[in-house]
Amino acid sequence: MPRPPSTAAAPSAVVEARTTGRQLSALIRPAGPLPGDWRASAPSLEELLLSCLRNPETPSSADTTTEAAA
After folding, report:
1. CA nearest neighbour of 24 among 34, 33, 50
2. Cis bond leading into 11, ω under 30°?
3. Are the beta carbons of 5 and 17 closer than 8 angstroms?
4. Residue 19 bridge partners (DSSP)
5. Whole-number pLDDT of residue 57
6. For residue 2, which of 26, 24, 28 has the smallest C-alpha distance?
7. Most distant CA pair in the chain: distance in Å?
């Protein structure tokens, strides 16, 4: 059983996640190196925009930077 997106991607910010069977696909803002068994690729502008529009409660990178600096 796959781990929940928030647990699997910790400490990264999860923008959007989908689970299909035993596979987890997620758009994240990494906060460090990713585990070695993950396959990573850059999202297209369309994927990025649609993910952010579907999940408006996800903090923006500016919000994350401000929180880290505080």
Report:
1. 34
2. yes
3. yes
4. 24
5. 78
6. 24
7. 40
The residue type of 29 is R
pLDDT tens-place string over residues 24-60: 888 888 888 888 888 888 899 999 889 888 887 776 6
Which residue is associated with the tokens 């925009």? 49
DSSP string, the chain: -PPPHHHHTTTSEEEEEEEETTEEEEEEE-SSPPPTT----PPPHHHHHHHHHH-TTSPPHHHHHHHHH-
pLDDT tier for residue 15 given thresholds of 50, 70 and 90: confident
